Amino acid sequence: MKSKTRNIFFAFGLFAVIVMLFTFKVSFTQLWADICHAGYWLFAILGLWIFLYMMNAWTWRIIIRGSGDCPIPFWKILKLTITGFALNYATPAGLMGGEPYKIMELKPYIGTQRATSSVLLFAMMHIFAHFWFWTTSIAVYLVLAAFGILPINVGMGIVLLFMTCFCGAGIYLFMRGYKNGMVVKLIRFISHIPGCKKWGRQFAESHQEDLMKIDRQISQLQSQNQRSFFGSFALEFIGRILQSLEIYFMLLLFEAGTGGGLTFVYAFLILSFTSLFANLLFFLPLQLGGREGGFAMSVAQMGMTADIGMFVSIICRVRELFWTAIGLLLMKVGNKLPISETTEQTTPV
After folding, report:
1. How far apart, in whole angstroms, are the C-alpha atoms of residue 253 and residue 159?
2. H or E stretch including 13?
3. From residue 102, how far is each of 9, 35, 88, 109, 243 by CA, in Å?
4. Is the pLDDT of residue 193 over 90?
5. Three-state SS across 215-236?
6. pTM for the complete prediction?
7. How many alpha carbons fall within 13 Å on the CB side of residue 62?
8. HSE (CB half, 13 Å, CA atoms) of 227?
9. What is each CA distance from 141 to 45, 114, 165, 275, in whole angstroms?
10. Using CA atoms, how far apart are residues 331 and 346, in angstroms rounded to an integer?
Protein backbone atom coordinates (compact mmCIF):
# COMPACT_ATOMS: atom_id res chain seq x y z
CA MET A 1 0.00 0.00 0.00
CA LYS A 2 1.21 3.49 -0.80
CA SER A 3 2.19 5.66 2.18
CA LYS A 4 -0.31 8.32 1.11
CA THR A 5 -3.19 5.83 1.18
CA ARG A 6 -2.06 4.45 4.53
CA ASN A 7 -1.91 7.99 5.94
CA ILE A 8 -5.51 8.58 4.82
CA PHE A 9 -6.66 5.52 6.78
CA PHE A 10 -4.58 6.66 9.78
CA ALA A 11 -5.98 10.20 9.70
CA PHE A 12 -9.55 8.95 9.36
CA GLY A 13 -9.17 6.58 12.31
CA LEU A 14 -7.45 9.22 14.43
CA PHE A 15 -10.20 11.74 13.70
CA ALA A 16 -12.88 9.22 14.72
CA VAL A 17 -11.09 8.49 18.01
CA ILE A 18 -10.76 12.21 18.80
CA VAL A 19 -14.48 12.69 18.14
CA MET A 20 -15.24 9.78 20.42
CA LEU A 21 -13.06 11.20 23.22
CA PHE A 22 -14.85 14.56 23.09
CA THR A 23 -18.26 12.84 23.15
CA PHE A 24 -17.40 10.42 25.95
CA LYS A 25 -19.90 11.62 28.55
CA VAL A 26 -17.99 10.54 31.64
CA SER A 27 -16.22 12.97 33.96
CA PHE A 28 -12.49 12.59 34.44
CA THR A 29 -13.10 12.10 38.16
CA GLN A 30 -15.38 9.12 37.59
CA LEU A 31 -13.11 7.72 34.88
CA TRP A 32 -10.05 7.88 37.13
CA ALA A 33 -11.97 6.41 40.06
CA ASP A 34 -13.07 3.44 37.95
CA ILE A 35 -9.55 2.89 36.62
CA CYS A 36 -8.21 2.92 40.18
CA HIS A 37 -10.95 0.53 41.26
CA ALA A 38 -9.98 -1.86 38.48
CA GLY A 39 -6.42 -1.81 39.76
CA TYR A 40 -4.23 -4.68 38.59
CA TRP A 41 -7.23 -6.31 36.91
CA LEU A 42 -7.02 -3.58 34.26
CA PHE A 43 -3.68 -5.00 33.12
CA ALA A 44 -5.24 -8.47 32.96
CA ILE A 45 -8.11 -7.07 30.85
CA LEU A 46 -5.77 -5.24 28.46
CA GLY A 47 -3.43 -8.23 28.25
CA LEU A 48 -6.27 -10.66 27.55
CA TRP A 49 -6.84 -9.01 24.21
CA ILE A 50 -3.40 -9.80 22.82
CA PHE A 51 -4.35 -13.48 23.11
CA LEU A 52 -7.76 -12.84 21.53
CA TYR A 53 -6.13 -10.96 18.65
CA MET A 54 -3.63 -13.80 18.24
CA MET A 55 -6.56 -16.21 17.90
CA ASN A 56 -8.12 -13.90 15.29
CA ALA A 57 -4.82 -13.78 13.41
CA TRP A 58 -4.50 -17.56 13.59
CA THR A 59 -8.02 -17.87 12.16
CA TRP A 60 -7.10 -15.57 9.28
CA ARG A 61 -3.90 -17.53 8.61
CA ILE A 62 -5.87 -20.80 8.43
CA ILE A 63 -8.23 -19.19 5.92
CA ILE A 64 -5.35 -17.88 3.80
CA ARG A 65 -3.66 -21.29 3.78
CA GLY A 66 -6.95 -22.89 2.82
CA SER A 67 -6.53 -21.43 -0.70
CA GLY A 68 -2.77 -21.86 -1.12
CA ASP A 69 0.52 -20.89 0.48
CA CYS A 70 0.81 -18.14 3.10
CA PRO A 71 3.98 -16.09 2.44
CA ILE A 72 3.03 -13.36 4.92
CA PRO A 73 4.63 -13.89 8.39
CA PHE A 74 2.36 -14.43 11.38
CA TRP A 75 3.54 -11.26 13.15
CA LYS A 76 2.34 -9.19 10.19
CA ILE A 77 -1.01 -10.99 10.10
CA LEU A 78 -1.34 -10.14 13.81
CA LYS A 79 -0.39 -6.51 13.12
CA LEU A 80 -2.97 -6.21 10.34
CA THR A 81 -5.58 -7.93 12.53
CA ILE A 82 -5.15 -5.43 15.36
CA THR A 83 -5.08 -2.48 12.97
CA GLY A 84 -8.10 -3.77 11.06
CA PHE A 85 -10.17 -4.07 14.22
CA ALA A 86 -8.99 -0.62 15.33
CA LEU A 87 -10.28 0.90 12.09
CA ASN A 88 -13.54 -1.04 12.39
CA TYR A 89 -14.04 0.21 15.96
CA ALA A 90 -13.36 3.81 14.94
CA THR A 91 -15.36 4.03 11.72
CA PRO A 92 -19.11 4.05 11.14
CA ALA A 93 -20.55 0.87 9.62
CA GLY A 94 -17.58 -1.12 10.93
CA LEU A 95 -16.37 -2.91 7.81
CA MET A 96 -15.99 0.38 5.96
CA GLY A 97 -12.51 0.84 7.46
CA GLY A 98 -10.65 -2.30 8.43
CA GLU A 99 -11.46 -4.65 5.57
CA PRO A 100 -10.37 -2.41 2.63
CA TYR A 101 -7.18 -1.61 4.55
CA LYS A 102 -6.34 -5.29 5.11
CA ILE A 103 -7.01 -6.16 1.46
CA MET A 104 -4.65 -3.46 0.23
CA GLU A 105 -1.92 -4.46 2.72
CA LEU A 106 -2.23 -8.16 1.89
CA LYS A 107 -2.40 -7.71 -1.89
CA PRO A 108 1.39 -7.57 -2.52
CA TYR A 109 1.79 -10.97 -0.85
CA ILE A 110 -0.96 -13.10 -2.38
CA GLY A 111 -2.63 -11.02 -5.07
CA THR A 112 -5.87 -9.09 -5.16
CA GLN A 113 -8.29 -11.99 -5.53
CA ARG A 114 -6.90 -14.13 -2.71
CA ALA A 115 -6.47 -11.08 -0.48
CA THR A 116 -10.08 -10.06 -1.05
CA SER A 117 -11.51 -13.55 -0.56
CA SER A 118 -9.44 -14.21 2.59
CA VAL A 119 -10.45 -10.89 4.19
CA LEU A 120 -14.12 -11.46 3.32
CA LEU A 121 -13.95 -15.04 4.60
CA PHE A 122 -12.41 -13.89 7.88
CA ALA A 123 -15.10 -11.21 8.30
CA MET A 124 -17.78 -13.80 7.48
CA MET A 125 -16.34 -16.30 9.96
CA HIS A 126 -16.06 -13.64 12.66
CA ILE A 127 -19.73 -12.69 12.24
CA PHE A 128 -20.83 -16.32 11.77
CA ALA A 129 -19.21 -17.25 15.10
CA HIS A 130 -21.03 -14.34 16.73
CA PHE A 131 -24.38 -15.70 15.56
CA TRP A 132 -23.59 -19.08 17.13
CA PHE A 133 -22.31 -17.31 20.26
CA TRP A 134 -25.61 -15.46 20.60
CA THR A 135 -27.58 -18.65 19.89
CA THR A 136 -25.65 -20.49 22.63
CA SER A 137 -26.42 -17.70 25.09
CA ILE A 138 -30.17 -18.10 24.42
CA ALA A 139 -29.97 -21.79 25.34
CA VAL A 140 -27.89 -21.02 28.45
CA TYR A 141 -30.34 -18.35 29.62
CA LEU A 142 -33.32 -20.70 29.16
CA VAL A 143 -31.57 -23.42 31.17
CA LEU A 144 -30.85 -21.01 34.05
CA ALA A 145 -34.41 -19.69 33.87
CA ALA A 146 -35.77 -23.25 34.03
CA PHE A 147 -33.86 -23.74 37.31
CA GLY A 148 -35.18 -20.44 38.65
CA ILE A 149 -31.75 -18.81 38.70
CA LEU A 150 -32.63 -16.05 36.21
CA PRO A 151 -36.02 -14.37 35.68
CA ILE A 152 -38.21 -15.01 32.67
CA ASN A 153 -41.28 -12.93 31.80
CA VAL A 154 -43.19 -11.73 28.77
CA GLY A 155 -40.71 -8.97 27.98
CA MET A 156 -37.71 -11.26 28.23
CA GLY A 157 -39.55 -13.90 26.24
CA ILE A 158 -40.04 -11.43 23.40
CA VAL A 159 -36.34 -10.50 23.51
CA LEU A 160 -35.28 -14.16 23.39
CA LEU A 161 -37.72 -14.86 20.56
CA PHE A 162 -36.32 -11.92 18.58
CA MET A 163 -32.78 -13.12 19.22
CA THR A 164 -33.70 -16.64 18.09
CA CYS A 165 -35.25 -15.41 14.84
CA PHE A 166 -32.41 -12.98 14.18
CA CYS A 167 -29.68 -15.56 14.81
CA GLY A 168 -31.52 -18.27 12.88
CA ALA A 169 -31.86 -15.98 9.86
CA GLY A 170 -28.22 -14.94 10.13
CA ILE A 171 -26.92 -18.51 10.33
CA TYR A 172 -29.09 -19.53 7.35
CA LEU A 173 -27.87 -16.62 5.20
CA PHE A 174 -24.24 -17.29 6.03
CA MET A 175 -24.54 -21.00 5.29
CA ARG A 176 -26.04 -20.07 1.92
CA GLY A 177 -23.18 -17.63 1.41
CA TYR A 178 -20.58 -20.26 2.23
CA LYS A 179 -22.22 -22.68 -0.18
CA ASN A 180 -22.73 -20.39 -3.17
CA GLY A 181 -20.60 -17.33 -2.43
CA MET A 182 -22.08 -13.94 -1.70
CA VAL A 183 -19.96 -11.24 -3.35
CA VAL A 184 -21.85 -11.25 -6.66
CA LYS A 185 -25.20 -11.12 -4.85
CA LEU A 186 -23.92 -8.33 -2.61
CA ILE A 187 -22.91 -6.20 -5.60
CA ARG A 188 -26.28 -6.89 -7.24
CA PHE A 189 -28.00 -5.76 -4.03
CA ILE A 190 -25.92 -2.57 -3.97
CA SER A 191 -26.86 -1.89 -7.60
CA HIS A 192 -30.51 -1.61 -6.52
CA ILE A 193 -29.81 1.01 -3.83
CA PRO A 194 -30.76 4.56 -4.93
CA GLY A 195 -27.61 6.53 -5.64
CA CYS A 196 -25.50 3.38 -6.11
CA LYS A 197 -27.30 1.84 -9.09
CA LYS A 198 -24.97 3.16 -11.79
CA TRP A 199 -21.78 2.39 -9.87
CA GLY A 200 -23.00 -1.08 -8.85
CA ARG A 201 -23.91 -2.09 -12.41
CA GLN A 202 -20.69 -0.74 -13.89
CA PHE A 203 -18.60 -2.44 -11.21
CA ALA A 204 -20.42 -5.75 -11.68
CA GLU A 205 -19.95 -5.64 -15.46
CA SER A 206 -16.27 -4.67 -15.41
CA HIS A 207 -15.28 -7.09 -12.62
CA GLN A 208 -17.70 -9.93 -13.24
CA GLU A 209 -15.02 -12.59 -13.76
CA ASP A 210 -13.02 -11.51 -10.70
CA LEU A 211 -16.13 -11.44 -8.50
CA MET A 212 -17.10 -14.94 -9.62
CA LYS A 213 -13.59 -16.21 -8.82
CA ILE A 214 -13.77 -14.68 -5.35
CA ASP A 215 -17.16 -16.35 -4.81
CA ARG A 216 -15.67 -19.70 -5.86
CA GLN A 217 -12.85 -19.27 -3.34
CA ILE A 218 -15.40 -18.50 -0.63
CA SER A 219 -17.50 -21.58 -1.41
CA GLN A 220 -14.41 -23.82 -1.60
CA LEU A 221 -13.55 -23.19 2.06
CA GLN A 222 -16.74 -24.88 3.25
CA SER A 223 -17.19 -27.50 0.51
CA GLN A 224 -13.62 -28.59 -0.28
CA ASN A 225 -11.55 -27.59 2.74
CA GLN A 226 -13.71 -28.44 5.74
CA ARG A 227 -10.69 -28.76 8.03
CA SER A 228 -9.89 -25.09 7.48
CA PHE A 229 -13.57 -24.15 7.79
CA PHE A 230 -14.19 -25.89 11.12
CA GLY A 231 -10.74 -25.01 12.45
CA SER A 232 -11.27 -21.31 11.83
CA PHE A 233 -14.81 -21.48 13.21
CA ALA A 234 -13.63 -23.21 16.41
CA LEU A 235 -10.99 -20.54 17.01
CA GLU A 236 -13.46 -17.70 16.53
CA PHE A 237 -16.16 -19.28 18.69
CA ILE A 238 -13.74 -20.13 21.51
CA GLY A 239 -12.37 -16.59 21.26
CA ARG A 240 -15.85 -15.18 21.90
CA ILE A 241 -16.18 -17.44 24.97
CA LEU A 242 -12.79 -16.35 26.31
CA GLN A 243 -13.74 -12.71 25.78
CA SER A 244 -16.21 -13.23 28.63
CA LEU A 245 -13.19 -13.29 30.97
CA GLU A 246 -12.96 -9.52 30.52
CA ILE A 247 -16.34 -9.01 32.20
CA TYR A 248 -15.71 -11.89 34.63
CA PHE A 249 -12.64 -10.08 36.00
CA MET A 250 -14.74 -6.96 36.59
CA LEU A 251 -17.58 -8.84 38.28
CA LEU A 252 -15.06 -10.33 40.70
CA LEU A 253 -14.20 -6.81 41.85
CA PHE A 254 -17.83 -6.35 42.94
CA GLU A 255 -18.23 -9.94 44.12
CA ALA A 256 -21.21 -10.05 41.76
CA GLY A 257 -22.91 -13.39 41.19
CA THR A 258 -22.25 -16.38 43.40
CA GLY A 259 -18.61 -16.82 42.45
CA GLY A 260 -16.85 -19.39 40.31
CA GLY A 261 -18.55 -20.87 37.29
CA LEU A 262 -21.90 -19.12 37.68
CA THR A 263 -20.27 -15.70 37.73
CA PHE A 264 -18.49 -16.60 34.50
CA VAL A 265 -21.85 -17.66 33.01
CA TYR A 266 -23.27 -14.28 33.99
CA ALA A 267 -20.30 -12.60 32.29
CA PHE A 268 -20.92 -14.74 29.20
CA LEU A 269 -24.59 -13.70 29.05
CA ILE A 270 -23.81 -10.02 29.66
CA LEU A 271 -21.28 -10.04 26.83
CA SER A 272 -23.66 -11.86 24.50
CA PHE A 273 -26.66 -9.60 25.03
CA THR A 274 -24.52 -6.44 25.00
CA SER A 275 -22.64 -7.37 21.82
CA LEU A 276 -25.90 -8.18 20.03
CA PHE A 277 -27.44 -4.85 21.01
CA ALA A 278 -24.28 -2.94 20.07
CA ASN A 279 -23.94 -4.68 16.71
CA LEU A 280 -27.51 -3.75 15.83
CA LEU A 281 -26.21 -0.17 16.06
CA PHE A 282 -23.24 -0.89 13.79
CA PHE A 283 -23.47 2.50 12.10
CA LEU A 284 -22.16 4.30 15.21
CA PRO A 285 -18.36 4.82 15.46
CA LEU A 286 -16.99 2.82 18.41
CA GLN A 287 -20.65 1.74 18.87
CA LEU A 288 -21.03 4.96 20.82
CA GLY A 289 -23.89 4.73 23.31
CA GLY A 290 -25.09 1.34 22.08
CA ARG A 291 -22.57 -0.63 24.12
CA GLU A 292 -23.24 1.38 27.29
CA GLY A 293 -26.98 0.86 26.92
CA GLY A 294 -26.45 -2.83 26.29
CA PHE A 295 -24.36 -3.22 29.43
CA ALA A 296 -26.93 -1.36 31.53
CA MET A 297 -29.81 -3.60 30.38
CA SER A 298 -27.81 -6.86 30.51
CA VAL A 299 -26.45 -6.25 34.00
CA ALA A 300 -29.90 -5.30 35.29
CA GLN A 301 -31.34 -8.53 33.85
CA MET A 302 -28.76 -10.48 35.87
CA GLY A 303 -30.02 -8.77 39.03
CA MET A 304 -26.97 -6.53 39.45
CA THR A 305 -26.84 -2.82 40.24
CA ALA A 306 -26.54 0.00 37.72
CA ASP A 307 -23.14 0.93 39.21
CA ILE A 308 -21.73 -2.38 38.02
CA GLY A 309 -23.09 -1.80 34.52
CA MET A 310 -21.57 1.68 34.40
CA PHE A 311 -18.21 0.41 35.66
CA VAL A 312 -18.09 -2.43 33.13
CA SER A 313 -18.99 -0.14 30.23
CA ILE A 314 -16.34 2.45 31.20
CA ILE A 315 -13.53 -0.09 31.60
CA CYS A 316 -14.49 -1.78 28.31
CA ARG A 317 -14.40 1.64 26.65
CA VAL A 318 -10.94 2.27 28.10
CA ARG A 319 -9.79 -1.07 26.71
CA GLU A 320 -11.24 -0.28 23.29
CA LEU A 321 -9.52 3.11 23.20
CA PHE A 322 -6.22 1.55 24.29
CA TRP A 323 -6.21 -1.12 21.59
CA THR A 324 -7.60 1.27 18.96
CA ALA A 325 -4.66 3.58 19.67
CA ILE A 326 -2.25 0.62 19.47
CA GLY A 327 -3.81 -0.46 16.18
CA LEU A 328 -3.49 3.00 14.65
CA LEU A 329 0.14 3.28 15.78
CA LEU A 330 0.92 -0.12 14.25
CA MET A 331 -0.05 1.33 10.87
CA LYS A 332 3.20 3.31 11.02
CA VAL A 333 5.58 0.38 11.65
CA GLY A 334 6.56 -2.82 9.86
CA ASN A 335 5.33 -1.70 6.44
CA LYS A 336 8.45 -2.45 4.39
CA LEU A 337 8.01 -5.41 2.05
CA PRO A 338 10.81 -7.95 1.47
CA ILE A 339 12.50 -7.46 -1.91
CA SER A 340 11.06 -10.72 -3.23
CA GLU A 341 7.53 -9.57 -2.40
CA THR A 342 7.52 -6.01 -3.70
CA THR A 343 5.67 -7.00 -6.82
CA GLU A 344 2.13 -8.27 -6.57
CA GLN A 345 1.85 -12.03 -6.81
CA THR A 346 -0.79 -13.63 -8.95
CA THR A 347 -2.12 -16.98 -7.86
CA PRO A 348 -4.09 -19.20 -10.24
CA VAL A 349 -7.66 -19.88 -9.13
Report:
1. 29
2. helix 3-22
3. 11, 33, 11, 12, 23
4. no
5. HHHHHHHHHCCHHHHHHHHHHH
6. 0.86
7. 22
8. 4
9. 25, 40, 16, 16
10. 25
